[in-house]
Specification:
Strand content: 15-25%
Mean pLDDT: 87
Shape: elongated
Radius of gyration: 42 Å
Number of helices: 23
Length: 843
């Protein structure tokens, strides 16, 4: 047997341990060189791109400028008019509070606190906005005057290293620690009231004077701890606006001062016993800019959008405000155009463009002070102004309602049994949607709401939210008549604007473009139109509100212009009126909304706080809101502007009281005809038979004995509209719990204005005219002593009172020599003007 050859094993390469170590070390060295190179390149980039260190910039910046929509300058602010204070004048308690809160190792580092900086850098790289600034006081001086604190991500990282470089190599090398603190205290923006020529507080000396009425050198520990806390966020921790927040922040400052050994626990507790409000100077009433509410809104919107403070970052802001309209509102506030009943009653107004949804003017209220309560943004109960939004708008949109849709304005209740009343405590009975909305009836509005909820609980929420309105977590039935908190004049103006704009909602906005001066960045705002309802729904609501405007609602008119108007009033519960000692008829809120094809104006009127001396009644509120709108309407709305009816909206002449809607007949009384609007495809096509021409009798015959003619015929079948049995069935099917009442009303109407069914007998003269011989409700009529035996008689079916719908005539020709049966119908010309009953409109 042959021996198998042995397979040679592959041998591993013999690599010496020293060689592996050399490779690893080489790799590490290359990585290290690369990292060092990157660090050096990054450092070089930071040094090259860092701003020039000009000491003048420590105390000055360009102004932020606001422009009107036409390009004219509205306002300019941001110039720093500081009152400087030297380090020697700063009280030790303020320096201690500042160091403990902002930079506890300030006197130990050379511009950089390495531990805090490392933590903040990691946070910036990971995108954690809450990682903190960890900037030293030196770095904050740089950031305040040379860089931007708003950069994030890589920009934020570069900015932070720029702060470090300039803090260490520009400030710390050239100035003492005391001088840097002096820079810091003199350069910081510390809030203010934004008023004309006093747009902000620049530095600690102005802050001490504004908030405490004293020089910074005289600040106590309590006052110093408040100011030190403000450096983090001057707006948030404004002691006039947010005492609770300021108190909490002050406690943090005091705790840090104890921690770092500047004060004792006993000193801290002593300060905590002092209310912040007791330390404040009486707030200075400064002369606000006439457009201050607009300016405040613009600045708030810009800061919310850009995260930049326009007081600190110079900008050019191009607003949407129309100076001519805003001036009208300003003069109204002053009392130039309307004499308000007292100095306490308030108003808030917003005007938006129908074309693009932009804010054209606002009124924050009478005697508005900077950063005060902007009543154009304050949310109040809307009262009846909610009805187009929560009731009739969605009813048309989702249930194919029309302006004719019928409702019963009768005693009614919420689903829980609570009674609902109209404002006049009366009931109008059967009513169309047009009249229900234009006359602001509560019960039809609730009925529409309940029908919507029964059909689909999502209908109302979807419609309301699409118009930018939040009624809260729960949608209660009381919301149908405006019983919910949460709508402002600005929101209301935008919501009503969607009706006038053919169903498109545009979120209101107040600027079109922002230019950041420091880096030439341009931020544009482009509006979006959102289709939230059909053009049919939008136009029908508008048409009904135009009817309200023509009836005097809204208090204003402009030649040739259609103005859609709706008012609203909210009541006060009895318990509150008793507690305040005011009449039970007092009202909380008064609204008036008016829009044209150009602008949508929403206005709230009322008192900020009710008291025994200051409250509104319904009549007083109507006088004020009508007086205001009358004063400004013709100054804002143009002449000869009308809404265009879409081709998909059909107008029909409908007979009132028909279910479903039916067209009026040729003989329907004019006071029972309304011209109403329907979505194309849902308009009525069937003609009502209630007042249709009556059928003529048939089967005419006669007998003649020489002295008298006895005429006979076959009676017609009683029409359904005059048949009690058929009528009762009709009302039972359509009028629910009120069927019996409306059945009796119809019978009463018929008895008073229609009459009983019967027949009128005429003799036809040789010249063709008809002479009435008499009336009968039977099927025969006797003519005594006829002029001859040969005559022509005509019998017509007729009601005893309502004559417009007389039937055609049954002709019976008689002869003296023979008996003859005749069954001939003659048709007289159609009457051109039907007889109209004298009963007033059923509504």
């Amino acid at each position: 047997m042959k021996k198998m050859k042995k397979t040679k094993k592959l041998s591993k390469p013999n690599i010496k341990k020293g060689t592996v170590k050399t490779i690893i070390l080489s790799g590490l060295l290359i990585c290290g060189i690369g990292i060092v190179t990157l660090i050096l390149v990054f450092a070089l980039y930071v040094i090259i791109t860092s701003p020039d260190f000009v000491t003048d910039k420590l105390y000055s910046k360009e102004s932020t400028v606001l422009y009107y929509a036409n390009g004219d300058e509205m306002s300019r602010f941001g110039d720093q008019n500081r009152v400087l204070i030297s380090y020697d004048q700063v009280p030790q308690v303020l320096i201690d509070a500042l160091i403990a809160t902002e930079d506890s190792r300030y006197f130990q580092h050379t511009g950089l606190d390495v531990a805090r900086f490392t933590k903040a850098t990691i946070g910036q790289l990971t995108g954690n906005d809450k990682a903190g600034g960890a900037s030293t006081i030196t770095m904050q001086v740089i950031k305040q005057s040379y860089t931007s604190s708003e950069d994030r991500g890589l920009k934020g990282l570069i900015r932070k290293f720029t702060d470090v470089y300039m803090a260490i190599f520009k400030l710390e090398r050239n100035y003492t620690k005391e001088e840097i603190i002096e820079f810091y205290l003199n350069s910081q923006w510390l809030g203010g009231d934004g008023s004309l020529n006093y747009s902000g507080i620049s530095g600690i000396e102005q802050a001490a004077n504004f908030y405490f009425g004293k020089s910074a050198s005289d600040l106590s520990l309590a006052e110093a701890s408040i100011v030190a806390g403000m450096f983090q966020n001057p707006r948030l921790y404004n002691p006039y606006k947010n005492e609770e927040g300021v108190t909490n922040r002050q406690n943090i400052v005091l705790t840090l001062m104890v921690k770092h050994g500047y004060i004792t626990e006993e000193e801290k507790k002593a300060v905590q016993k002092i209310p912040v409000s007791s330390l404040l100077a009486e707030k200075k009433v400064t002369s606000s800019n006439a457009n201050q509410a607009v300016i405040d809104l613009v600045l708030d919107e810009v800061e919310a959008k850009t995260k930049l403070n326009p007081y600190r970052v110079p900008m050019k802001i191009y607003t949407t405000v129309d100076p001519s309209i805003q001036n009208v509102i300003t003069e109204l506030e002053k009392g130039t155009y309307y004499n308000f009943p007292n100095d306490v009653v308030q108003e808030g107004m917003a005007i938006t463009s129908m074309e693009d949804g932009s804010i054209k003017a606002i009124s924050g209220g009478r005697n508005y002070q900077a950063k005060g309560t902007n009543r154009a943004l304050g949310r109040r109960q809307p009262g009846s102004t909610a009805k187009p939004i929560l009731d009739y708008g969605p009813y048309i949109e989702y249930l194919n309602g029309s302006t004719y849709s019928m409702f019963l304005d009768e005693p009614s209740s919420y689903s829980d049994g609570t009674r609902v009343r109209n404002s006049d405590n009366r009931y109008t009975g059967l009513i169309t949607m047009r009249n229900a909305l234009s006359n602001s009836r509560n019960i039809p509005a609730l009925t529409a709401f309940q029908r919507l909820q029964a059909a689909d609980a999502s209908y109302v929420p979807n419609f309301v939210h699409s118009l930018g309105i939040d009624y809260g977590k729960n949608l209660y039935e009381s919301a149908s008549i405006g019983g919910f908190d949460g709508i402002s004049p600005l929101e209301m103006s935008a919501a009503y604007g969607a009706f006038g704009r053919g169903g498109y909602y545009i979120e209101p906005y107040i600027y079109t473009k922002i230019e950041i001066m420091e880096n030439s960045e341009v931020i544009e705002h482009k509006f979006e139109k959102e289709k939230v309802m059909s053009e049919q729904t939008a136009y029908m609501i508008t048409s009904m509100l135009v009817t309200a405007g023509k009836n005097g609602i809204g208090g204003t008119w402009v030649s040739g212009t259609e103005l859609a108007a709706k008012t609203g009033t909210t009541t006060i519960d009895e318990q509150k009126t008793e507690a305040l000692g005011i009449p039970a008829t007092a009202t909380m809120d008064q609204w008036v909304n008016v829009y044209s094809p150009e602008y949508s104006i929403a206005t709230w009127i009322g008192y900020d706080k009710l008291s025994k001396e200051y409250y509104l009644t319904s009549n007083a509120g109507i006088r004020i809101k009508n007086g205001m709108m009358s004063a400004i309407g013709q100054k804002i709305f143009s002449k000869n502007k009308t809404f265009t009816r879409p081709t998909t909206v059909i107008e029909c002449a409908v007979e009132i009281g028909t279910f479903p809607a039916m067209l009026a007949s040729d003989f329907t009384p004019s006071n029972l005809i309304v011209n109403e609007l329907f979505k194309e495809g849902t308009e009525p096509t069937e003609v009502s038979t209630r007042f249709s021409k009556l059928n003529a009798p048939t089967g005419g015959s006669y007998t003649f004995d020489g002295n008298k003619v006895n005429l006979k015929w076959t009676n017609i079948t009683t029409p359904d509209v005059a048949n009690p049995t058929t009528l009762k069935e009709y009302f039972n099917n359509n009028y629910g719990a009120y069927a019996s009442k409306y059945y009796e009303d119809r019978i009463s109407y018929n008895n008073s204005y229609i009459g009983s069914l019967g027949y009128q007998v005429y003799k036809k003269e040789t010249n063709g005219t008809l002479t009435l011989l008499g009336r009968t409700e039977s099927n025969n009529f006797e003519v005594t002593n006829p002029t001859s035996g040969s005559n022509t008689y005509v019998i017509k079916t007729a009601y005893s009172l309502f004559k417009a719908n007389l039937s055609d005539g049954l002709v019976i020709n008689t002869k003296s020599d023979i008996d003859s049966n005749v069954d001939e119908i003659i048709k007289p010309p159609k009457p051109t003007t039907p007889t109209t009953p004298t009963k007033p409109d059923l509504e």
